[in-house]
Specification:
Number of strands: 5
Number of helices: 21
Largest sheet: 3 strands, mixed
Oligomer: single chain
Amino acid sequence: MTWDLTKIFSDDQEFENAFKELEEKLKYADSYKGTLENGPEAFLAALEYLLNISRQLETVYVYSHLKNDQDTSNTTYQALNARAGALATQADEKLSFFEPELLSLSDETIWGYFDNEPRLEIYRHFVEQIISNRSHVLPKEQEALLAGAGEIFGASSNTFSILNNADLVFPVIEDANGEKVQLSHGIYGQLMESTDRSVRENAFKGLYSVYGQFGNTLASTLNSHIKTHNYNAKVRHYQSAREAALSSNHIPESVYDTLVEVVNKNLNLLHRYMALRKRLLQVDQLHMYDVYTPLLGEAPISFTFEQAKDKALEALAPLGEEYLAVVKKAFDERWIDVVENQGKRSGAYSSGTYDTSPYILLNWHDTLDHLFTLVHEMGHSVHSYFTQNNQPYVYGDYSIFLAEIASTTNENILTEHLLETQNDPRVRAYVLNHYLDGFKGTIFRQTQFAEFEHFMHTEDAKGTPLTSEFFE
C-alpha cells in the first residue's frame, strides 16, 4: 500500500551519489558562458548541457519531495528535500546565463545555426518559445540574481506546507457512533459527508478553530507569497501577476476574463442547486458544513482500495487495452502511496519526472469520492506516462492549461460507467449527486478561487495591506 521509490534510487546513498555527481557537473556551467555566439556546435553543446542538468536535477528533486511527503514531520527527509531545493536554486543561478545570451543573438544568427546543424532541429520549438518571451527576459546578471533568490521566494509556501502537514494538531471529536476520532485532513473530508449535522458542524468548527489560532501567521505567509508573484511580474515587465502566470503557456488574459464572465452569468444554476440542497437537507440556513454531505442520506455504496482498483479497470475499459496496461502497471509496480498516516502530506496528487514513474499520493478512505480521486490522479499519471514515452525529454511534459483534461475525462467516464451498471435507484441518485457536487467544485469553485487570487494580487499591487483582518 506504499509506493516503491527504489525504482528511482535504490536507497538514500544512491541519492547522495547522484546529488554529488550533479554538484560536480554544475561546476562546468561557467565554461559554457559566452559560447553561444561561437557557432552552431557550441550553441548545441550549451543547450544540451542545460537540458542534461535539468533532467538529472528533476530526478533528484522528485525523489526528495516524495520521501518528504510520506512524512512531513521526518526531519531527515525535510533536510533531504531542502538540500534538493537548494541545489535547484544553485542550478537555476548557474544556468541563468542561457536565455539572455541566446536572446542577444540575432534571429538570423539563431536560425542560421539551425540551417547548418541538423542535430538542432529537434530543439526548434523550444528555442521559438524562448524567443517569443524576449521582452520578459532580463540581462544575465539580473537573471542570476533572481535565480539565486529562488529559495527565498519559496520560503512562505514552504512554511505553510510544513505548518499545515506536520505541525498543526487538530482536536479529537466524536463521530456519528459516539466514538472519539482524531481530526485530520483526510478524516475531515470523511466527516463532512456525515448525515449527522452535529458531527459535520463539530468537525468544521474543530478544524477551523485551529487555523483561526494562526490567522496572522497564515495571512503573513499568503501575503509574502503574493508579493513574490507581484515582484517577479513587475521586474519582468508584465502588467500583472496574472499576465505573468498565463504567459508561460501563451494564454491571453481574455481567456481568464471569458471564463469568469460566463461562469458569473450562470450563477443562477449554482444558486438553484444550493437551494435544492437546502430544501432536501431540511435546514433553515445552509452552512459550509452542509455543502458536502450527500443529499439522500448515508452512502449506499463504498469501495475498499482493492475493490476500487477493479472498478477503475472496468470503468476505464473504453480507453482501450494500451491504456489499461498502463493502469495495471501503476497498480502492479507500486506507483501509489495509498494510506493516510500522521504527518503525510494531505490531499492527493500525481508527481514524477521524465526518468521516473508518475507516482500517485492518496490518503485513502473507503468512499465513492476516493474512487473518483483514484481515477482522477490515474488520468494525470497515464497522461504523463504516454507523454514521457512518446516525446523527447525537452518536450516530455505538458502545460498546466491541458493538465486537467485527462483527469476530469476519467471522472466523467467513471460516472457514466456507474450509471450504466448500477441498478439500485439509491446508488444512481448518489452518483448523480456526486457528479453535481463535482461540477460545482470544478466549474464554480475553481473560478471563484481564480477570482480571489486575482483580487488579492491586484489589491497588493495597489498597496493594500493584506492582513488577517482584510482577509476576513
